[in-house]
Amino acid sequence: MFDWFKVYLPFKNQSLFIFLSMRKIILLFSILMASVGFTKAQIVTRIDSIQYISPSDLATGNDLSYKNGDTVWVVGKCIFEPCFYAQSGSAGYPSRLASILIDTASGSADFKGLQVMLDPSAIGLGTGTGGAAAANDVVNLNNTVGFVNNFSLNTIVKCKGIVSNFNGNTQLVLLPVAAIPIGVSASQAAIVTTIDSLMLYNSGTSTQDIQYTTGERYEGQYIQINFPTVTNVSTTTANRYRWEIKDAAGNQIVVQDNFSGNFTNTNYDQFCNNNNGTSYTPTTFPPTPNNVINGTVLSYVRGILLQNLNTTTGLKYYSLAPLQLNDIGNPTYAPPVVTGVYVNPGNPTASQTVDVYANAVDDSSVTTVECFYAFGLSNSTFTNIGMALQTGATYKGTIPATVTDSTYVKYYIKATDNHGHVTYYPDNQATNSYYLAINSGVYSIRTIQGRMYSSGKSIYAGDSIANINVDGIVTATTQNDDLGMITIQDGTSPFSGIVLDGASVAGLHRGEKIHITSAKVNEKFNITTLSNPVFTIVSNNNTLPMPITTVNIDSLIANKHSYAEPFESMLIGYNNVAVIDTNPDFSTAKNFGEFSIHTTSSATTGLRCDDYSNNILFGFNTDSLLKQQTLCYVNGILTFAFGNWKMYPRNLSDICGFTTNYQKIISAFSVTGNTGFINQTANTIAITMPAGTVVTALSPTIQFIGQSISPAPNTAQDFTNPVTYTVTDANNTTRAYVVTIDVSIGMNEIKNATMAIYPNPAKQSV
User: Fold this and answer.
1) d(C-alpha 666, C-alpha 661), whole Å
2) Which of the 8 DSSP states describes residue 129?
3) Reported confidence tier of residue 135, pLDDT bands at 50, 70, 90
4) Closest by alpha carbon to 45, among 64, 23, 69, 63?
5) Is 521 in contact with 459 (CB distance < 8 Å)?
């Protein structure tokens, strides 16, 4: 049967009469419907519409894509080979890959770049980072998408993914849909811009502030900075090189080394291998005296602009990620290199002059080294005091006394070589380079903790301070039933806690009050620490500070450092909390022994609590806790580790429903080098002293596990009769040891003694 059908065409309201059989009509209808569906599924969203943010939103710091969470098709030119991605995994197991697409549509060059991720765990198809299972997930997803093959350099490709955000950086997370190569384009030219359009030095706060309104347009784009100066070069234990570049005004940006495998030097680009099985990345990046050293002016630096989060300050910042080795230009000249800058004394009084020391070297010769200082952090007028060569390459200058108490003194170093090339340390604004002249000295923990650079470090970091006059109560120790780290507090107000480390403090016990007179201040993993302090024990068995229960838990979870820093290393706690997660790292196939809590049971994210304690065994989080379990309290020491503020319960007793069986043991007892025999069953200690020892005033050295011991170690006691030593634990239970000291009989005593032999006469024994 045949019939006429009128078909309306989707343009200019035209129609067409078609004479077909019913079977052919059905077939044609199926084809048309499939075609319509296929076209609709591949409607392309331009990259600049994903990346564009209005100036009004950028002015408020809001740079979240308007299409965040949307599923889209995009088209762009690939300017980075996925096989060069430096963070694909470790130990031979890839976990993710990445590339960069540039919008090929005409129009403005702004908002044209986009990072593209092949990350199974981000779309719920993977087990997370690391391991053979994660590697298999990446392989399967790559086989579906064709990521490595289709995203080759300069290929224009169409792909489908979900718009997402990581630390402010907009990304497209690919879905398991085959990418479609469209063609090939010319190599991408870099967009030339300036550092101050990306990061701007703020003299009021001594910070480098992100410039959203002028910089966000370049996110994910290939940009170039001309004639920058290299600064802050450092080498990590993994043979990675960290450095920044700056302009003459002190504006600086981080050069990110962990995007391209050419710069990471870790061979983490594990997904693609050459035929011989070696890493795909052909060359690693070795800064040399002729390339990247502090003070060198490079002809240019190119790379992808990315956004990052400073986990110490909680602030976002732009970084520049070079892709190829030729993205680092040749040096135009090499000025002097300034290192080893320090002041002495580190905490002067207002009447003391301060010596500034610095080492300066050059590839030819150094002609002058000068020190510039200014009284007051807001003072921008610097005075030159000059510096004189001491020995080798060390120069010294002397800053005059401030006279006025509690005055901050900024300073920087200027070195000039015989070609007139100049370098500044740290820059000519003295960013984070100052000390405080104060007559009262260091009289509280707050004096050390509460005076910080903009980076969050103590202004005394690296200094050995001699005039400390601080008392503190030991709140956590390295004992077997305690935290495994030592903290003290001198109150419950902000900035009242600090960590101690070193051999001198290893034997401290909870509740001891100590008086510190000197120590070296260090920043260890972003935690202010007093290393090897000189101290005396004032008293023991003191009442510990109560946990602070008013710290806003959401501020800690959100890593608001300005709010959290004042409570660093202090004992805090929360009452009536719910266990939000027994393993916050489950999604990455990891278990670091952490669990998270919140005062609101419906919260989706909680404050992490770590099993750092010697008394909390690994697996406690999953073996002993349940999700949504209510705990009447959790206490612990607040600290910062691996990008998160966390609470370290000191032992099981800091967690409601669990109890620590505290030990009460005298583990060693000696008098002037003579060791006592300890019977832990009978709770007795016996010691024999040399002949002639007077036992009426002996001062024993004692090592014990517990909170306190009485009488105190190293105090004179009369051992004419046995003396009882009592060890008290944190629960105020006690254990008593009876100590008996005998004195050996010498030859003179034997010679003068009256002796009777029985039997007399004797044949074999007496």
Assistant:
1) 16
2) S
3) low
4) 69
5) no
**pLDDT single digits (tens) 724-735:** 999 998 888 899
Quote the CA–CA distance of 264 and 285 in Å, as a whole number: 8
Strand ranges (DSSP E) for 642-707? 644-648, 665-671, 674-675, 677-679, 684-689, 701-705
* DSSP letter string, 71-123: EEEEEEEE-S-GGGBTTSEETTEE--EEEEEE--SSS-STT-EEEEEE-GGGG
Look at residue 152 and tell me whether its pLDDT is greater than 60.
yes
Choose between 314 and 397: higher pLDDT: 397
Structure-token match 């001699």, residue found: 466
Closest by alpha carbon to 247, among 214, 292, 201, 289? 201
Q: Nearest-CA neighbor of 401 among 373, 441, 443?
A: 373
Q: Any idea which residue has 């051999």 for tokens?
A: 503
Q: How far apart are alpha carbons 350 and 407 in whole angstroms?
A: 8
**Which two three-digit tokens encode residue 312?**
């110490």
Strands 470-476 and 513-524: antiparallel
Question: What letter would DSSP give residue 653?
Answer: G
Q: Tell me, what DSSP letter sits at residue 178?
A: -
Query: Which tokens sit at 564?
Result: 């959290």
35, with CB counted inside 10 A (0-12, 13-18, 19+), is exposed
> How does DSSP classify residue 460?
T
Query: From residue 718, how far is each of 551, 553, 698, 724 by CA, in Å?
Result: 50, 54, 7, 11
Residues 624 and 599: beta-carbon distance below 8 Å:
no
The mean-pLDDT minimum among 180-194, 222-236, 237-251 falls in 237-251
Instruction: Please tell me the distance from the alpha carbon of residue 335 to that of residue 646, in angstroms, as a whole number.
Output: 44
Express each pLDDT in 321-358 by its tens digit: 999 888 999 888 778 889 889 898 888 999 999 999 99
Q: With CA atoms as reference, report the closest residue to 710 among 544, 543, 539, 545.
A: 539
Length of the chain: 766
- CB-hemisphere CA count at 13 Å for 556? 28
